[in-house]
Amino acid sequence: MNAESTDVTLDRTPLVSLLPLRKGMNIADYHLLLVGEFDRSMVDFVPDNLCQTTIGNAVLFAADPQDPGHSFSFLGCDQSGLLFRAQNSAVWGAYRKVLVFVETAGGIYSFFSDLDGIDSQGVYHFRRPALLYQRKTRLRRRLHLDGEIVLRRRSGESIPGSLHDLSLDGASFFLANCPLDAGEAALVEFDVVDCGHCETVVTTVRREARSATLGDLVGVRLLLTKEQKKQVEHLYLCLEYPQLRHWNQHLDNSGDAY
Question: How far apart, in whole angstroms, are the C-alpha atoms of residue 101 and residue 126?
Answer without folding.
Answer: 13
